[in-house]
From TrEMBL:
It comes from Vibrio ziniensis. This is AMP-binding protein. Gene3D superfamilies: 3.30.300.30, N-terminal domain of ligase-like. SUPFAM superfamilies: Acetyl-CoA synthetase-like. It holds the Pfam family AMP-binding. Residues 19-292 form the AMP-dependent synthetase/ligase domain. Belongs to the ATP-dependent AMP-binding enzyme family. GO terms for biological process: fatty acid metabolic process. One of its GO terms (molecular function) is medium-chain fatty acid-CoA ligase activity. It comes from the Bacteria.
Amino acid sequence: MAFSCTELSPLSHLLLNQRPNSAVAFGSEGEINWAQFVADVGYHTNLLNHEKHQNIALCARDSYLFTVGLFALFHAGKTVILPGNYQPEALEELSSQFDFLLCDDAISPLRSTPTQSLTTGHQDSLQIFQSLDLESIQLILFTSGSSGTPKAIHKTLHQLNVEIEILHSLWGEKALNSRFESTVSHQHIYGLLFRVLWPICAGNPFARHSLEFPEQITHHANNDTVLVSSPALLKRLTEEHQPTQLRCLFSSGGPLPFVAASHAEELFGIRPIEVFGSTETGGIAFRQQTTEQLPWTLFPKVEAQLNQENCLRLRSSHIDPSGWYQTADECEFVSKDQFILKGRTDRIIKVEEKRVSLVEVEKRVDQLDYVKECAIIPIQQAERLILAAAIVLTDSGKTKLVELGKGKFWLLLRNELRNWLEPIAVPRSFRVVKEIPLNSQGKRQVAELEKLFQ
C-alpha cells in the first residue's frame, strides 16, 4: 500500500503502508527511516507474541522507542498500560495493574515486576503485519483521580483514531511536510496524540527527545517545525527575544496567559493554538488568543451542554461512544459551539499545567512517619502557583524537627515524597500546626489555612 504524505493513515493500517525513504524520527543519533521502524516493530512484536502476559506497561523516555513498543504491543494484541510518570515508587504502586514492564534503558526496572528493554537497529523482520481491530485493542492511561489514587482511563484505538482524524482535519494542511518537536511527555494523552500518533499517521517525523529549556526551543525553531508544548514552558520564554519562525505551535495542559501568547507571536510569528481537554475526554476545544478571555471553540463532532451546576457535559465518539460524559469544568456558553471556562469544581488542580490531585498529595504526606495529619492548599507565590502543606507532626516528627532544624527537615520530607510524586506535586512550603483548623461542621477553614502562609 503506497502512502502519500498528504494523506492520513488510520492506526489500523499504519504498518501496512509503504513509505520508501520516509523519515519517522530524528535526534542526535540521526534519522530513522520507515523501513527501520517497521523492522524494529516487527522484532518486538515477535518477542511479545511469545509473552504469556496480557497487560503490559510501557514506560520510555525516548519517543521513538516508545512508538516502537506501542505498535508492537498493538500488533501482539496486548493491553497497553501507560503510567503517568517515571517515579519508581509510583510505578511500583501501579504494578498490580500490569504483569510486565516494557521500557528503555533510562527507566529503572521494578523490584517485583519482569521487565524488558526496547532496542533499535534490527534487520528486516519476518513479521507479517495484519490490520488492527481498533475496537478490540485497549490502552489504559492513568491520571489523578478525585479519590487521591491514580485513576485508570480506558481508551480503544478507535477512540484515538477518531481524535487523530479531527486533529488532521483542523491542522493537517498547516503541518504538511513539517517536523514535530515537543516539550511534553508521550506518556500522557496530549503528548501521545500530538507528539507521536498524529505525526506518524500523517507522515511527519518527530523528535526522539524532549526540549526542556527555553533556549533549546528558539535554537530548534524554524519554518518547518511544529512545536508541541505547554504553558509551563511557554511562560518561561520571556527572556528570549531573538525572533525566529515556527510553522505551528500547540499548547495544552492549562490556559495560557495572554501575555505569554503575545510574546510567543513576537518570537515565532504565530499565536499558539491552545487545546483544551483531559485524559478522560481527549481534546475537545481550541482557541488562538487574539484578545484576553477569548472563548474556546468546540472540536468538530463534539456536542456539549451544561448541567444544573453549569458544568460541561460532552458527547463524542472519541470521548464516550455510549453517551454523555460529565466534567467538573464550570463554563458559560457564548454561542452554540463556543464557551468561556470559569474553573473546576473538584479538588484536582493544574500546577505548571500538570494535573495534580490535592487528595493524592495529602495521602502521600499523611503516610510519612513524621506526619499525623496534613492539609494541602494551592497558593500564589511570586507569580507562580505552588502547593503548601499545613502538617500536624507525630512524636517522631517533632523529635526529628528539633534534631535537624526546619530547613533540613523540610528537605527530608520533600525527598521522601519524591518517591511517590512528580516534583511539581511536592509541596514547596510547610507550616507545623497543632491541629488542622475546622469549622463547626467539621470542614476545613481554607481562609485560616491560607493565613498560615501569608
